[in-house]
Amino acid sequence: MPDGEVLLDVSGLSVRFPTSDGVVNAVDDLSFQVRRGETFGIVGESGSGKSVTNLALLGLLNRRAANIEGTALFKGRDLLTMPPGELRRIRGKEIAMIFQDPFACLHPMYRVGDQLVEAIRAHERVPRRQAAERAIEVLAAVGIPKPRERFRDYPHQYSGGMRQRAMIAMALLLNPDVLIADEPTTALDVTVQAQILELIDRVKKEFDIAVVLITHDLGVVAEVAQTVMVMYAGRAMEQGPRQQVFGKPLHPYTWGLLESIPHVDQKVSRLVPIEGAPPSLIFVPPGCPFHPRCPHRFGPCDQKRPEFRDRGGGHAEACHLSADEKRTLWAERQERFTRAAV
Amino acid sequence: MAAYIVRRLVWVIVVLLAVTMITFAIFYLLPTGDPAVRFAGKSPTPQVLEEVRRQFGLDKPWYAQYWHFLSDLTTGDKYGWPGLGFSFDTRIPVREELLERAPRTLSLAFGAAIVWLTLGVTIGIVSALRRGTLLDRAAMGFALFGVSAPVFWLGLMALWLFAETGGGPDWLHFLPGTGYVPFSESPSEWFTHLIMPWVVLALLYAAFYARMTRGNLLETMGEDYIRTARAKGLTERRVVFKHGLRASLTPIVTMFGMDIALLVGGAVITETVFNIQGLGAWAVRATFNQDLPAVVAVVVVSAFAVAIMNLLVDIVYAWLDPRVRYQ
After folding, report:
1. Contact call for residues A156 and A113 (beta carbons, < 8 A)
2. Same domain as B234, residue B114
3. Which residues is B86 bridged to in the sheet?
């Protein structure tokens, strides 16, 4: 368990979008803490509420369209209730964010350098030239070759990996405490992915910050996160230290996820998908939202919502099965899985 | 960039050549009647007709006439440069009439352009930022009205309401009636005479531009780079006016160039309603009267305007969007 200072303390976060078709429950009663020096991984399928969670924290959701409840304390101040002007001063300066598609995230009509300088000058009164010098330094720090020349380039002159590096540079300009990375590697080539993940890990250590890493890729989380939260239908299914969640997963949904990733070292001829599809967020199944797809569902699953509880050592999950049942079931599944593989 | 502009200017000349040639060809190949007959008056003798044809050069083949036209155009004729000949219909040198009429149409077109650009873009921005509110609905209602209201009706209503000679309530009659006063004669009269035509002509365009700005801005505001701009903590004002507007205005530049260019060819209805004897009214009359020199003059001016505005649009576009520059 990381022991850095708690930077982000989210509790009871719910995000609902009233639409003409009904209320979309994008995030439902989510709680987690992020500490300095750790990478907090949020994993889930598309539409599980990962991105919405973080957009909500930074006030990047349209407040008129979204119904946000709960608290999100950042160094003791609640992000969800503070006035927009105050939140704006935190955005980019204390909490920075990078996004999935670096092709679309930089403004195509402004020079990369100007976009960096603008980010500095949105928060600090410094002369342009000085801001530019700092931007060039940070571009160099994130591994952009010839940063002084590249500073004057437009985004379309950058490669995908370089754009994501530039985005990371933009995020680091003002020494933030938290870096939220929303699918930072999804749009990149596999080789570039590894470089970007390494870079994020390096800056986390160098700048001593907390990283919230949102991804649908369990492999990415397994590589860099210290704490993992598995989301499904806007809720946390399982959360805990990486070794716990990957080594002794407790929730049938996590089991399904782990079984569905390919391993190079195991000769699996066929991957095991999770049967069915994620539910509509307007009509979330009652009880446990995963129960229609869960092979182990029983009596209370479609009636009672399982409590999200700590099962020891910071490893929490929400499932009605008892600890013993889970142990046996997971052992069985693992055996079946490996046997199928051979 | 300079080489590019020169290359484009050469193309402008090629386009103009093609356009004039086509105009000539249409005029001679289509069975429209003999201009000499019109010119020679009632029941002319064959000798008079022959003489008229000879004087106008109508007895020569069309390519010889075209060549004659081109050499006059480039080197000037007895009325000055550019040589455009004299009208079959009014017997006034075409150049003189062109110089008389062009400022009217240009005043009308550019004045209206300023009005519709300011009005349309402003309404579009406000509408997009206040989407779904009463203000937005009112603005879009106005836009619908502007698009649907015919110019001649709007023009007549405006005259009725605001012109000294109008039939509406007296206290509203603070503008002069129809007609045109040259800027050189009286700038203030020029201005007051043009207010109504500008606004009437601009309403239609303003409506289009408002809808387009609104649509573009709404679309741009959903782009990822807008989210980035917000995420780095820019003020909303900067997000909208710097990042949002820049990207949503580029298509408007293209449209604006074309609209202006087309108007230079004459806004016939507006010119007619407000009795501004501009290029549009002239073109219509010349066409009906088979007045080839006048038709060609208007065509040359219009084609030139289209070609030049196209070039300007491309230059501005390259300046606005760096991705175009490096292609």
Report:
1. no
2. yes
3. B93
Q: How do residues A241-253 score in pLDDT, each as one tens digit? A: 999 999 889 999 9
Q: Would you report the helix, strand and coil content of chain A in percent, each value rounded to 5?
A: 35, 20, 40
**What Å distances lie between residue B218 and A342, B223, B253, CA to CA?**
55, 9, 17
What confidence tens digit (pLDDT) does each residue in A262-284 have?
A: 766 665 556 678 888 888 899 99
Q: How far is A106 from chain B (nearest CA, A)?
A: 5
Q: What is the pLDDT of residue A264?
A: 60
Question: B136 in contact with A at a CB cutoff of 8 Å?
Answer: no
Read off the DSSP letter of residue B241. Answer: I
Same-domain status, B192 and B65:
no
B237 shares contact with chain A (CB less than 8 Å): no
Tell me what ipTM this predicted complex has: 0.85
By residue range, what is the domain housing residue B52? 17-75
Tokens 């007051």 found at: B192
Closest CB to A60: pick one of B230, B320, B326. B230
Is the domain of B63 the same as that of B106? no
What are the tens digits of pLDDT across the range B33-69? 677 777 777 777 888 888 888 877 778 887 888 888 8
d(CA A258, CA B187): 80
CA B80 to chain centre: 25
Question: Could B232 and A122 be called an inter-chain contact, meaning their C-beta atoms sit closer than 8 Å?
Answer: yes
Contact B311, B12 (CB under 8 A): yes
